[in-house]
Structure formats: structure tokens, C-alpha cells
Amino acid sequence: MIRVLVADDQPLVRAGLSGLLGAEPDIEVVGTAADGDEAVALARSTAPDVVCLDIRMPGRDGISVARELCGPDVADPVPVLVLTTFDLDDYVFGALEAGASGFLLKDAEPDEIVRAVRQVASGRGTLDQALTHRVLREFADRRRLQPVTLRRGADVLTARERDILLLLAQGMSNEEIAAALVVEVATVKSHLARMMPKLGVRSRLQAVVWAYQNRVVEVPDPD
């Protein structure tokens, strides 16, 4: 069972997300929060598997909450999925840099939101497809290196881990990567589990951002 905390300052949105997610047989909504401080307190008391977090809330905003729940200095991070009506780049960058595992616009289809929650809970992460190339291109252009630099990353990754990272950056699932490399899915998962700590990242999404950010792979041109 995936235990989810929903944090949004709009009652209708909280009720809608709670109803949508709670209707799924494998998801349980363990609490709802109307502001950032409440979100942090409930996350600590309920220990959810995923926090669905709005960006703009009274008091502490979503980026600040994400940083406290899953930032690089957090010993026991809680996976965060940011859901927002705003696709402004600074919000996307802020959420990813704060450690969020996913970023999705609220006008996404219900099935996409449910799928995103499952992906974040499983450690896969997700990013709204409408934002992906724009966000990754900007991350690459900014050249803000992750804690592990390209040179060190290249030194510590095995050839197989690098292959998996390149396929991961293409948006492939574990199953698709396994098929491409002719290995078992469990083997892919084992490589990912060993690779991410080497790069100083905590999710598949952050690993993909690292790959583009450090020019391991290039962002496709819009054309």
C-alpha cells in the first residue's frame, strides 16, 4: 500500500486529489495539509511514502517544504511529487534542486497523476512531458554541477552503469532497459541502486538531470 500525504492550500484541490488517489486499491491517503508548516508536521508524524505538494502555500512554500523533507542534507528523505498550476522555470528548477522526485502540472489527466504517484513511490520519479526538454536544456546551460562532477562520475561508474544511465536519460523504464541490454529487470534495478549513490542522487529523475547537466547526454533540439 502506498501511503500518501496531500498538501495544498485550496480545499477543493485537496478533496479532489484525496478522492482520486484514495479510490485506488493500492493507495491510502494518510493526511491532508493546508500549508507548509502543517505539511512538514504531518509528514514527520505519518511517515508517508509520497508527499503530493503544492508550490504556492501560505507560510512556508512548497520548495522550502521539499528541501526540508527530501533535501540533500536530510538523513531519511520523504519522496516528494510537486503538483502545481504554474510551469514557471524557477519553480521547476527550485523543486528539483530541493530534492523533489517529480514535477507535474495540475491539469494533467487523472490517470497520469495516479501513475506519477506510483512512479515516485517506486523511486522512479517523473517530470511533466511538456516541460522535460525545456527544463533539461536549461539545467545543462546553467551548468550547476551536482555534488559528483562529470569526471568523478565517469571514474566511478562501470561500463554497464553508464549504459543504463544513457538509456534512462532516453526515458526508458526498467523493463525497456532490460530488453535493450538483454538482461533481467532485477539486474537493471541492482545497477540503479548502486549507481545513484555514486552520483550523489536519490531518484531516477535526479540521475537523468545529472546526465544532461554534466553533458553525458545532450538535450535534443526542439526541431
Automatic annotation (TrEMBL):
Lipid metabolism found in the keyword field: no
Keyword Magnesium belongs to the record: no
SUPFAM superfamilies linked to this entry: C-terminal effector domain of the bipartite response regulators (SSF46894), CheY-like (SSF52172)
Keyword annotations: DNA-binding, Phosphoprotein, Transcription, Transcription regulation
Gene Ontology MF terms: DNA binding
Domain Response regulatory: 3-121
Secretion signal, residue range per the UniProt entry: none
Modified residues (4-aspartylphosphate): 54
A GO biological-process term: phosphorelay signal transduction system
PROSITE patterns: HTH_LUXR_1 (PS00622), HTH_LUXR_2 (PS50043), RESPONSE_REGULATORY (PS50110)
Protein name: DNA-binding response regulator
